[in-house]
Specification:
Two copies of one chain form a homodimer. With 199 residues, chain A is an alpha/beta fold. In chain A, 41% of the residues lie in helices and 13% in strands. Chain A folds into two domains: 48 residues, Helicase, Ruva Protein, domain 3, CATH 1.10.8.420; 92 residues, Dna Topoisomerase Vi A Subunit, Chain: A, domain 2, CATH 3.40.1360.10. In chain A, helix 1 crosses helix 2.
């Protein structure tokens, strides 16, 4: 209840609908938006609309792209025999930031989750299998998160892909670089021990 | 460096320019925005533009308003002899939420801050003094924040207003309701003691 300024209340509601933004933060953001110049506010609104209009899925790897085929898939310098399978575009960007990976990607846009009603048809599984048909891909790296859903999805895909004669690998488990052994959980420590390599 | 999708990067930058939103949160919000339907994204963008277009300052109390004179200032049921002076519209909304205050408001849109170059001319001091000219206002409550700038602004205004024959008061200091004495700072406790009342 209480006093309400409609246009302001609507803007606050919009911000409050964003993930991780509470009522108070939404109000703060709305007032900040009003403190901008008309031009700055317009740029903000346009960035939202532009992203929505321009970004579609790359027809090959399913990553967000402004073009039909994204710059990574059309980059002739990349290793076309290797595909890294990730849950979403955020993860792809994380790998690109390392600057070390030179293969291609495939974005699933989610993980299998029977509880949430997400099966293979809700993900881009069909598109992935189609890419493996011509024999040019030699290895698929499962780079889903080390969670229950991430593991289950990786296992499910591995079972489908292996019979096609393609090597399926998984990201290494271990202690994070710069991490502290003391704070590592048992499973991580055990996996780190298991995956030890010669120096 | 690294891989960059322009329309996405621009949206992330816009979110990262908001107060309290870091690079990671901005990316999360941008991806959330892309997960909305076209229509929902449009509503978000329109809420920003609409708020900017519709909201101006009430010519009387200087609060944000869609009308020339805001609903509070034009409400005949409110006590026109009492004005509560606040720093910004957020504080006005906080008072309205109590549902107890029945007087009018005056929004300063900031506090005096010589260090930041904010003097009386950057605030709505002139507009406040104009409202006190006709003798209808009997009391002005200073409801600025209990900070150095808030206190200084209240003192400055009190010195201007008292000679006009208008009573100037200050919000009570004390322990917050539901607060714990143990965690109250000394100044607050002292002020609470000083302002004690009979029960």
């Amino acid at each position: 209840m209480g006093y309400r300024i409609d246009a302001l209340a609507r803007l606050v509601e919009q911000f409050a609908s964003l993930p991780g933004i509470g009522k108070k933060s939404a109000q703060r953001l709305a007032f900040h938006m009003l403190s901008l110049t008309r031009e700055q506010a317009q740029q903000f609104a346009e960035a939202i609309l532009e992203a929505h209009q321009k970004l579609k899925r790359c027809t090959v790897c399913q990553n967000l792209s402004e073009e039909e085929i994204c710059p990574i898939c059309s980059d002739e310098g990349r290793d076309r025999s290797l595909i890294c399978v990730v849950e979403d575009p955020k993860d792809l960007l994380a790998f690109e930031r390392t600057g070390e990976y030179r293969g291609l990607y495939h974005v699933l846009h989610g993980l299998l989750s029977p509880m949430a009603g997400i099966g293979p048809d809700q993900l881009t599984v069909k598109e992935l299998l189609k890419r493996l048909g011509d024999g040019s891909v030699k290895e698929v790296v499962m780079a889903t998160n080390p969670t229950v859903e991430g593991e289950a999805t990786a296992m499910y895909l591995a079972r489908l892909i292996k019979p096609m004669g393609v090597r399926v690998t998984r990201l290494a488990y271990g202690i994070p670089v710069g991490g502290n052994l003391e704070y590592a959980d048992e499973v991580t420590l055990y996996r780190a021990l298991e995956g030890r390599s010669e120096i």
